[in-house]
């Protein structure tokens, strides 16, 4: 078989097009009342043949071909002429000069009608013979017309029935496909009409007897003279067999290896009505679909190909056509085509309906941005069983013929106005071909190896297909193991990595292949420990020896990064290891896990709690110093909560409760320095995440009954190494929201907002703000009147500057304008000497005059801004003056004087002292809980002017 240099889609598409997509007509039939008289001359006949051919003339011409007479008895017998009587081209001629041009035009017309026309074609009619059909009194079977050799590149027969006085003689054309023949009747107005008949080679004509008169017909061969145009031929069983055997054999031999689609099949589109029920296979096909299937099925079986039938749903989505008025309703930033002006909108004028409320047909589809080809109900028509593949998608490379849907109206359409999206749906049927040896690859490409694994039946021995499926699934699992996070499925609705890996473990056990089992277990990184434990139990029964899979189990635990999962796996494996085969190795891994646990996650907390429960709190106390000091806030606070629950479970001894209390305290102590680090997701305090963390720490401290970490946090909030704007900004952004939310949180916890240590924290926060952010008042010189200047543009700029708070203003102007500004400042009624300074900078062109406020003026203005900020801060901390006075106590007068600027506020020592008091913990539904003896004494309040002395509140 000759090799192919083309592609599979092109060669197979050509075979379908040449044999099953005949676009022309099998025959041509027309009449012409204006056709010229050919001026026919026949050897042996005197003169031209007159038209219309009379019965007398016809008889006279026909009898010139009668056989010689002979004597029969006493009579002389004259044998009749043959019917039809024919003369070949060498014995006839057409003398009318117009007949040649008539034939040239006729050749083009007939070629086009037959579908053989091409822009480079040059057909011509070549004379074959002339025949006279005789009428007989009794029915006599007609002999075939004179057969003459066909010229090269002839593809059709043309018969010109000249005007004759006759009746009957219909022509029956049969294509040999069990259909009724086509009847062409030339007897109507036969005396004055020229009839033109033509048919492809391969069509079988049958001439019916002439019932009266004589019929004269010229026979021509239609020849394609252009060598650049292939000769069109009517498909036959032989041509179909030859064309498809060549392509399918090349496909089978691997000639198209580089052009075979991803899913190794080719699908030929047919009308869905011809395949209404694919489940019936070949019996459910009709029309063209049945013809194609019946023709190809023997060839496919002979060459090792499988044939299937399926339904296709081809969906296209995109924008309305750019020439449709709805396209202009799309927002301009979403249009793909540049449109200028309003000519397209105005084209429709007032007849354009309302886009949102109007009723109008679905717009034509323009730019396509989504295309899907979905197959379903695939059924074998060659008798071979195939797994139910359900629904899957194929690519454009799988579809034949090219452009199968182009120019066809959709079966369904819709327009989603909200998305400006047109949807067209085409419903068709498919005849599918693929190499039988590629069936496994076809299933894997269409549905994926994970789906194929789930469909495999449990067997004692692997079949070739099962082995291929397992290898494909194993390769994909190995590729996916490089990703730390789970990936989206490659195929819709397919099983997960974990489900597939566990299924492979079960198949490896059934096949007693421990090597395969050892490979797969290392890929079970996302499978649940319970599922792994169940598969391990099945494997031990199948293999009978734990040592065969010991190393892979240890490797699985070792490769697991999450601490919690690692300990769960150790627990599951240990439960199946009755003889202790891997107990020592797992114990070493468990200890190594703790030694290297420097950055645990929230998912590891249950494992850490379990360790504290089984090995004691001391194990975790030794672990805490190794944990990272950054990025572990959430882990440490979550661990503290879970340890608190463990402390109050029944069966926990008093000594262990005390140890757990110390462990909780250490967790909080490590978490508090990180309260500002990282992202903290809180639903209740979305706009103040830092305040949310502070509230969380306070809540945990009240829950566990130990307020020492709470006080440590508050003291850290009161420590500042700087003053001024930074302190003000920090307290407004952090302290004010924290105090507001802490009040609400304390009430939720059943605590009073006026209790320690919260009340001292609020007092000391205000004290630090007044001392560091407000500070002593800076006297501001008298502000000059803003009526300086003459009213020109520059003078107006100067007035705006005096009324604002900017430090300086620059005038880059020619010297005359700068001198004008300086003169206006000097001659002002109000002295600017104590308020402004001027400076000329000569390194710019033109030079610049800088008018600047004096430093003491700037400082005074800043204090005024700080005073406004302090007043707003006090309102944020305390709702009204009465609450503020009650909070500040004896220092309230100092606060008022600081705000007025008459006396600077001195904060003194703002440290909140620890005083152990009995603080009940929130016990999680147990009766043997013990209250913590750790507590806090609220901060002492400094008296006015003492700076650091403490006094106790009664």
Topology (SSEs and partners):
Layout: H1 8-20, E1 27-32, E2 40-42, H2 55-62, E3 70-72, E4 75-77, E5 85-88, E6 92-94, H3 97-113, E7 123-133, E8 154-161, E9 166-168, E10 171-174, E11 182-184, E12 194-200, E13 204-207, E14 210-213, E15 215-224, H4 237-252, E16 266-271, H5 287-303, E17 305-320, H6 343-346, E18 365-380, E19 392-394, E20 399-400, E21 412-416, E22 421-435, H7 439-447, H8 449-455, H9 464-480, H10 497-510, H11 514-521, H12 529-543, H13 550-559, H14 563-576, H15 583-595, H16 605-615, H17 617-623, H18 633-647, H19 654-671, H20 689-704, H21 708-717, H22 725-748, H23 758-774, H24 793-803, E23 808-812, H25 815-826, E24 836-841, E25 848-853, H26 855-877, H27 881-888, H28 892-900
Parallel strand pairs: 16-20
Antiparallel strand pairs: 1-12, 2-6, 3-4, 5-7, 7-15, 8-12, 8-15, 9-14, 10-11, 10-13, 16-22, 17-18, 17-22, 18-19, 21-22, 23-25, 24-25
Helix pairs in contact: 1-4, 4-5, 7-8, 8-9, 8-10, 9-10, 10-11, 10-12, 12-14, 14-15, 14-16, 16-17, 16-18, 17-19, 18-19, 18-20, 20-21, 20-22, 22-23, 22-26, 23-26
Can you characterise this structure?
Residues 925-954 are annotated as: Disordered. This protein has 954 residues and is of the alpha+beta class. The chain has 6 domains: 23-224, Jelly Rolls (Sandwich); 237-447, no CATH class; 448-477 and 495-582; 603-678, no CATH class; 680-758 and 766-778 and 882-954, no CATH class; 793-853. It is built from 28 helices and 25 strands. Strands 16, 17, 18, 19, 20, 21 and 22 form a 7-stranded mixed β-sheet that branches. α8 crosses α10 (497-510). The chain is elongated and about 165 Å long.
